[in-house]
């Protein structure tokens, strides 16, 4: 019988106030927060990781430390200088009620929409390498209509259905709850399978999974 490794209990989440919530939910700060959650880092290490100037790294670290999001660890003195490392607790709970979002819709959209915009930016850079002229094809379908991206010669099914690792599709299917649950299970299983193949030195790919009851058009 194979013994399973016993994982240590997850640390208790940190509580937040409104100022901390604004920083923790800032999409632009996620790379920095992720770095400092993994291990304490110096300002120079932050600058290298984010590919920014050292002054910018210090500015960001001051924002986090003044709010209490980051803690300073004095490691040792080098000559007259004190080496400081900055760390962020690995778990936080950010209640919707303490944020500046007026509605739960705005709270959710604040995290999703900036990432969708970046996804669109990456997509545009890719499709511009295929051909210069793009538009939408709106065509009658069996039940309703289809809207497909393409050029003057037709929709770009070769790009979306071919070997290029790129998808930009929103589909709809009428499913029972059991089938929808099975679809979710399979999608998550595929994500887990390919997550195990991750190669750090390879290209980064963004994968988005969306499944919700209701029609978005």
UniProtKB/TrEMBL annotation:
Parts of the chain that traverse the membrane: none
InterPro entries: Tscrpt_reg_TrmB_N, WH-like_DNA-bd_sf, WH_DNA-bd_sf
Domain of life: Bacteria
Domain Transcription regulator TrmB N-terminal: start-end pairs: 27-83
Coiled coil: none
SUPFAM superfamilies cross-referenced by the UniProt entry: Winged helix' DNA-binding domain
Gene3D superfamilies found in the cross-reference section: Winged helix-like DNA-binding domain superfamily/Winged helix DNA-binding domain
Protein's name in the database: Transcription regulator TrmB N-terminal domain-containing protein
Annotated source species: Deinococcus budaensis
Lineage of the organism: Bacteria, Thermotogati, Deinococcota, Deinococci, Deinococcales
């Amino acid at each position: 019988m194979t013994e399973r490794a016993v994982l240590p209990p997850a640390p208790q989440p940190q509580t937040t106030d409104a100022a901390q919530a604004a920083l923790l939910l800032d999409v632009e700060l996620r790379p920095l927060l992720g770095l400092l959650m993994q291990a304490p880092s110096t300002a120079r290490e932050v600058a290298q990781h984010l590919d920014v100037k050292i002054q910018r790294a210090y500015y960001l670290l001051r924002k986090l430390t003044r709010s209490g999001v980051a803690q300073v660890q004095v490691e040792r003195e080098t000559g007259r200088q004190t080496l400081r490392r900055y760390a962020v607790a690995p778990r936080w709970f950010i209640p919707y009620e303490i944020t500046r979002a007026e509605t739960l819709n705005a709270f959710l959209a604040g995290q999703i929409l900036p990432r969708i915009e970046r996804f669109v930016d990456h997509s545009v850079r890719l499709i511009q390498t295929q051909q210069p002229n793009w538009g939408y094809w709106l065509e009658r379908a069996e039940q309703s209509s289809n809207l497909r991206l393409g050029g003057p010669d037709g929709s770009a099914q070769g790009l979306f259905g071919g070997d290029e690792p790129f998808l930009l599709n929103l589909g709809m299917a009428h499913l029972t709850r059991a089938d929808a649950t099975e679809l979710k299970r399979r999608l998550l299983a595929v994500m887990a399978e390919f997550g195990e193949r991750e190669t750090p030195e390879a290209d980064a790919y963004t994968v988005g999974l969306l499944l919700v009851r209701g029609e978005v058009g």
